[in-house]
Amino acid sequence: MTNLPNPTIELIENNPEVKSYIYQMIAEFEGFVTQQTVISVVARDPKKLAIQYETEGKEFTKEGLKKLFRIAIVLNEADASVEAEGVHEDIYQAIKLAKDNLMLKLVEIQDSVVSQQDRIIEINHYLQHHNLH
Question: In a designed cystine with 58, which of 53, 82, 85, 130 is the match (CB 3.0 to 4.6 A)?
Answer without folding.
Answer: 53
